[in-house]
Amino acid sequence: GTSMAYNISEIETTDYDDILLGKDNFYENIRLFKGEDTITSGYGHDTIRTKPDDTDANSTFTITDYFSHDRIEILEISDLNLSNYWDQFSVSYANGNTFIGMNSHAIDNPDLFELIGEKSLDYIKVDERDNTENDIEFYFNDDMEGNNLKRETSDWYQENRYEIYDEEVSIYIADYSPGAPIRIYDAIDRFDFSVG
Question: Which of 57, 131, 145, 162 could be stapled to 182 by a disulfide with Cβ–Cβ 3.0 to 4.6 Å?
């Protein structure tokens, strides 16, 4: 069947194969469950997320219109290795599309997320949820050349390209440009820096 709802920002899929159509210039927080889902979230700052407990090795979440304003999250990871999480979560390319793979929580799924079109990885962040779980966030450019509308349309973001907030414990920057600022919130307290 088809369900239609308007001006809904919190969306959850079912355990079946779902098709979601979002709205342009409207924030949507989309939680994905098992299945072969197709998501067209619309232009805007959208979050598309899942958890290891919500998915499996056979699920594929296809995002038809990923923009650099969007964010993809995998939440509540209890076996994340901060020393080499890029081995547990992969970014690959095939048939002109971009894939995020997951090898964690006994789930080996090399194409958990499929982004239509090739998008170069901008950066990955890891948030510390508590002492036993972490969240991982993926941010991509709009193409393989590194064009990034989010950065190009924001004066502040253009100059201060990366930020690490209090709960964030790691950042992996795919193609770091020497000299590009990384802003670390509360760095003096967090890392025991002294100002002299």
Answer: 162
